[in-house]
C-alpha cells in the first residue's frame, strides 16, 4: 500500500525507524522496481548541527521547510546524489536520509542504481508515479548507531544514535 501524505507529517526521529523495512518504489521507463529500505538517518531541523538546515533557509534547503513527503535530492562531494525524504510539518526542516536498500549498501550506490538525481528533487512521495514508498505490513527489528559522514557537526550531534539499520542487514554495516 502506497503511504499517504499524513504518514510523512511525523518528526524525523520517529519516522526514520518507521521507514525501515518499507519498500522504496521507482518507476524507470514503465518498469517498477521495489527495494526494501535497510538503513536510514534522522536530520532534525535547525538545532541539529548535522542537518543542512542548521544555518537556516537557503536556496538548497528551502524544500526542507515544506510539509513532509517531498524528495530532497542533493549532490554530495560533486559525485553522488543523496535521497532524503522531507518529513514533519511546514517550517520545521527535518529529513530522513535513505542510506541503504536491499542489495545496495550506501546511499550513492542506491541513487545511481535507481537513477535518482536532481530531477526528482521536490517530487511528492504521496502522489508521484516516479518514486514513492509502500508498506507491505512487515515489521522489522533494528539497531541504532551514530550517523555517518558528519565530521562538521557538534560533538553532541555526532554522538546521537540517529542512524537506524535493520537487524538482518546490520552485520556488515555497523562498526
Question: What's the helix and strand layout?
Answer:
Elements: H1 12-19, E1 23-28, E2 31-44, E3 71-76, E4 80-87, E5 94-101, E6 104-105, H2 107-113, E7 131-134, E8 142-145, H3 155-158, E9 163-166
Antiparallel strand pairs: 1-2, 1-7, 2-5, 2-9, 3-4, 4-5, 5-6, 8-9
Task: Write a concise synopsis of the structure shown.
The protein is mainly beta. Helices cover 11% and strands 32% of the residues.
Report on this model:
Strands 1, 2, 3, 4, 5, 6, 7, 8 and 9 form a 9-stranded antiparallel sheet that branches. This protein is mainly β and 175 residues long. It has one domain (5-168): Methylpurine-DNA glycosylase (MPG) (3-methyladenine DNA Glycosylase, Chain A, Roll), CATH 3.10.300. A hairpin with a 3-residue loop joins strand 3 and strand 4 (80-87). It has helices at residues 12-19, 107-113, 155-158, and strands at residues 23-28, 31-44, 71-76, 80-87, 94-101, 104-105, 131-134, 142-145, 163-166. Residues 170-175 have low confidence and may be disordered. The longest helix is centred in the first third of the chain and has 8 residues, at 12-19.
- The value of Rg in angstroms is 15 Å
Q: Report on the biggest sheet.
A: 9 strands, antiparallel
Q: How does the helix and strand content classify structurally? A: mainly beta
How would you spell out the order of helices and strands?
Answer: HEEEEEEHEEHE
The count of helical stretches stands at 3
Number of domains: 1
Mean model confidence by pLDDT: 94
Strand portion: 25-35%
Total DSSP E strands:
9
Q: What name is given to the CATH topology?
A: 3-methyladenine DNA Glycosylase, Chain A
Q: Which residue ranges are poorly predicted, with pLDDT under 50 across at least 5 consecutive positions?
A: 170-175
Amino acid at each position: 500500500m502506497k503511504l499517504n501524505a499524513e504518514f510523512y507529517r511525523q518528526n524525523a526521529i520517529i519516522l526514520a525507524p518507521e521507514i525501515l523495512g518499507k519498500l522504496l518504489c521507482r518507476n524507470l521507463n514503465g518498469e517498477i522496481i521495489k527495494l526494501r529500505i535497510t538503513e536510514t538517518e534522522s536530520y532534525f531541523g535547525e538545532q541539529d548541527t548535522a542537518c543542512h538546515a542548521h544555518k537556516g533557509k537557503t536556496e538548497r534547503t528551502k524544500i526542507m521547510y515544506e510539509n513532509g513527503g517531498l524528495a530532497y535530492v542533493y549532490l554530495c562531494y560533486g559525485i553522488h546524489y543523496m535521497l532524503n525524504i522531507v518529513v514533519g510539518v511546514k517550517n520545521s526542516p527535518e529529513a530522513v536520509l535513505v542510506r541503504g536498500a536491499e542489495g545496495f549498501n550506501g546511499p550513492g550506490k542506491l541513487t545511481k542504481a535507481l537513477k535518482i538525481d536532481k530531477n526528482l528533487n521536490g517530487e511528492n512521495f504521496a502522489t508521484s508515479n516516479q518514486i514513492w514508498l509502500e508498506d507491505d505490513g512487515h515489521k522489522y527489528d533494528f539497531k541504532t548507531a551514530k550517523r555517518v559522514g558528519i565530521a562538521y557537526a557538534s560533538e553532541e550531534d555526532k554522538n546521537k544514535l540517529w542512524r537506524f539499520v535493520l537487524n538482518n542487514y546490520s552485520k556488515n554495516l555497523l562498526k
